Amino acid sequence: MSAQISGKAIKRLILYHYILSDCLLKGNEYISSQQIAELLKIDDSQVRKDIALCAASGKSNVGYNTKELKKSIEQLLGFKAQKAAFILGAGNLGSALAKHTDFADYGLDIIALFDNDPAKIDTLLNGKKIYPLSELHHVATHEQLVNKRKVEIAILTVPASAAQNSAELLVHAQIKYIWNFTPVVLSVPEDVRVCNENLVGNFLDFTNS
Amino acid sequence: MSAQISGKAIKRLILYHYILSDCLLKGNEYISSQQIAELLKIDDSQVRKDIALCAASGKSNVGYNTKELKKSIEQLLGFKAQKAAFILGAGNLGSALAKHTDFADYGLDIIALFDNDPAKIDTLLNGKKIYPLSELHHVATHEQLVNKRKVEIAILTVPASAAQNSAELLVHAQIKYIWNFTPVVLSVPEDVRVCNENLVGNFLDFTNS
């Protein structure tokens, strides 16, 4: 994906993609920027500006071809370039994310889960195996050597008390991106990036505005 | 909470609160803005600016009193003013959010869940009862009349195919804020606010930057 696209534009483009998917399901061949803008309660000119990033062009009077615009967004945001990821913590949240059908469509390929609960180990979740946390480094190495897949992303959904230790296992396994759903600020080396999925902050920001 | 605080500042203050909670657990009585800044890999001056919003003052050489700063953030962000909320969809994600111990600490009081699975109805999840979706309006009215609690917030974690119908039930039950975790752009009246928890967008923004 081009690094020129702002985070806000990426998030809007994903919402346009949701709308376009829904239009296709309903058999709507065309959609206008006004229709998208109204659904999202944003300005029409913003929608047109974002869509211009895809180099998609609308026809006057009928709008954009739904199927083509959907494909353009997929190309722009690079959904086809699947990125391999682990999930640490196979509780409710980890399970929900593992089953998130969207993720594969949007380029996030979850290949294994890790947990310390003996009852969960070696079971499958949405077709993905659950390993003990102690095997993280081993599984990562195996993926790289045998399956030629470098796993650089991990989704952290372990309990708060296990968060920092898990982060250290991830660093040891050469994970470069940690998507952190725990309420813990992780201490990691400079070259490891952490994205804090701050649900509490999102909620407070939302109900405060 | 003051409407003057930006969304970004709110999210940083929540992260400081996580750090302070951890410090208290470890028995650290003081923390400096530099220590917070280093953990979050952000600028020290940003931390001091945010903390100034709380009217908390540090002592030179020792830093901020952990317990006092934690309390100041709680007051600033209004954690004590509990807001009542429903969760629609008691699957993995809904269950994870219902069990999210943090939410109550940060002012979000989940009082009931709704689902259409007969096996789940009338069971308890983290002490909260699961009702059929058809009872949403009734439960909301009961909360207002009997328990004197106006429920204005709903968390939507139903399957995509049920999202718009659920949103319409919420509008009918006079919910004013919908925290939408589904991959669907909801069509709702002007006075209902929707916050799209765009996990896919957050992921793409994170790994693109």
From TrEMBL, chains A, B:
- Localization terms from the record: Cytoplasm
Q: Pfam families recorded for this chain?
A: CoA_binding, Put_DNA-bind_N
Q: From the UniProt record, give one GO term of the biological process aspect.
A: response to redox state
* Its job: Modulates transcription in response to changes in cellular NADH/NAD(+) redox state.
Q: Which family does it belong to?
A: Belongs to the transcriptional regulatory Rex family.
- Which Gene3D superfamilies is this protein grouped with? NAD(P)-binding Rossmann-like Domain, Winged helix-like DNA-binding domain superfamily/Winged helix DNA-binding domain
Corresponding gene? rex
Alphabetical list of HAMAP family matching this protein: Rex
What InterPro entries does the database record attribute to this sequence?
A: CoA-bd (IPR003781), NAD(P)-bd_dom_sf (IPR036291), Rex_DNA-bd_C_dom (IPR009718), Tscrpt_rep_Rex (IPR022876), WH-like_DNA-bd_sf (IPR036388), WH_DNA-bd_sf (IPR036390)
Q: Keywords, A to Z?
A: Cytoplasm, DNA-binding, NAD, Repressor, Transcription, Transcription regulation
Listed name of the protein: Redox-sensing transcriptional repressor Rex
Q: Which residues bind NAD(+)?
A: G89, A90, G91, N92, L93, G94
Query: Which sections of the sequence are annotated for DNA binding?
Result: 15-54
User: Looking at the UniProt record for this protein, which Gene Ontology cellular component terms does it annotate, in alphabetical order?
Assistant: cytoplasm
